[in-house]
Amino acid sequence: MLRAAIIALLTICAATAAIADTTAITNADIHTMSRAGEIANGTIIIRNGRIDAVGTRLRVPAGATVVDAGGGVVTPGFFVLGTDLGALEVELVKQTQDNATANSSLSAAFDISYGIDPDSVTIPIARLGGVTRALVTPSYADGKDRELLFAGQGAIITLADGTNVVRRPRAAMVIELGEGGAARAGGARGSAITALRADLDDVRWYAGRRGSYNSGSTRDLRFSKADLDALIPVARGRMPLIVGVHREADIREVLKLAREYRLKIVLSGAEEGWMLADEIARARVPVMLNPTANLPSSFEARGTTMENAARLHAAGVTIAFANGDGGHRAREARYNAGNAVAHGLPHEAALAALTINAARMFGDNAIGSIERGKQADIVIWNGDPLEPRSEAKAIFIGGKSQPMTSRAEDLAKRYRTLGTPYPPAYKD
After folding, report:
1. Which of 28, 95, 208, 226 is deepest in the core (most CB within 10 A)?
2. What's the pLDDT at 279?
3. How far from 110 is each of 105, 179, 189, 202, 317, CA to CA, in Å?
4. Which is it for the CA torsion 131, 137, 138, 140, positive or negative?
5. What is residue 215's predicted lDDT score, i.e. its pLDDT?
């Protein structure tokens, strides 16, 4: 009898806990970013941090927390790529810059995840812009005699409040070619490509002869052991290699190199990508781009156009949006997407570039769409999220409701009326 009573009590407690962790978002215009497409007047059931059901005429579980979206738009959380979010706090304070190294002997092994600050004030600001996930990537702090080509390894982070933000360290390797790579390799593009080929050959040689390397029986290698170890997943096509490249001719050279070495590459920048969009599509190489790039900032980007995203998408290229303005402006990713729509990119394609495309590019299969089994990273908007005047009204990451405030907003409220002649209309 006692055992039966205990089992019954545990069953009741488990059921109560399940109800407590259940949320229903109702009366929502859901952009699922899945095969289900857009669902009008839909409902999302969230259990234990994951999406349990999505559709119309769903029964809301008894005891669930109900969030009425009021007919507003609901999207997956946005995934921003190529940002320094959490790795750079104050641009003019060197001690807060953990996004790059000037070490002349460290290249591919540089791991940005070690320097990401979970308490960075930039993270809540980005979150209020609907950003729930980010790929933080290293940049270059070129020091004297630095000739190594790789910037280092990026990390995928979550923007959930009060967590260890790093979700996947060493998620991608970063390298810049074109003018930047040429400058590090002696001043010519040919030097950079030749050096990269030699480096990849060294890594492949090392990967099959680590015993010889450790015993000292080896040929001369340019990289340290740490760099060689970091590059083995790249050389074997397991780790994405993000290649910063801009000019049409350089993009074509990178595609050729990727075919020869069987690399898993992602083009970054690719301002002249539209000129060979069909070739990029045939190679099934995704592109992360800044959709607001509209001026030829250098000779290698003379063909820059704000129609780049639309033209690449029309050719069948998978695109996602990189944040060209740093972590402090990651919240503006949706504005950039709106600009792409204004220049020909279909609206749903822009949302896909902010969500499911970015997730797929970097193998983050638990997020990016609103469908059963996915992690409940969800944003409720009071209008079209690609319109600047729209705002996020509720944000869930892993099914947990997130604070709708930031340090910037707290300071604004604190000092808005303090010692100022603002009329009552400006007061809280």
Report:
1. 28
2. 98
3. 10, 22, 24, 18, 30
4. negative
5. 64
Distance CA 257, CA 285 (A): 12
The position carrying tokens 């060979």 is 276
Q: What is the 3-state secondary structure (H, E, C) of the chain?
A: CHHHHHHHHHHHHHHHHHHHCEEEEEEEEEECCCCCCEEEEEEEEEECCEEEEEECCCCCCCCCEEEECCCCEEEECEEEEEECCCCECCCCCHHHECCCCCCCCCCCCCEHHHHCCCCCCHHHHHHHCCEEEEEECCCCCCCCCCCCCEEEEEEEEECCCCCCCEEEEEEEEEEECHHHHHHHCCCCHHHHHHHHHHHHHHHHHHHCCHHHHHCCCCCCCCCCHHHHHHHHHHHCCCCCEEEEECCHHHHHHHHHHHHHHCCCEEEEECCCHHHHHHHHHHHCCCEEECCCCCCCCCHHHCCCCCCHHHHHHHCCCCEEEECCCCHHHHHHHHHHHHHHHHCCCCHHHHHHHHCHHHHHHCCCCCCCCCCCCCECCEEEECCCCCCCCCCEEEEEECCEECCCCCHHHHHHHHHCCCCCCCCHHHCC
Distance CA 310, CA 345 (A): 4
Q: For 387-413, what is the mean pLDDT?
A: 92
Q: What is the pLDDT of residues 328-349, one digit of tens each?
A: 888 999 999 999 999 999 999 9
Q: Is residue 138 pLDDT above 60, yes or no?
A: yes
Q: How open is the CA angle 34-332-136, to the nearest 5 degrees? A: 75
Q: Which of 372, 399, 381, 287 is nearest to 35 (CA)?
A: 372
| Token reading at 201 | 């050959």
Report the 10 Å Cβ neighbour count for 293: 21
User: Of 364, 403, 409, nearest to 76 (Cα)?
Assistant: 364
Amino acid letter, residue 12: I
Number of residues that this document lists for the chain: 428
Model pTM? 0.89
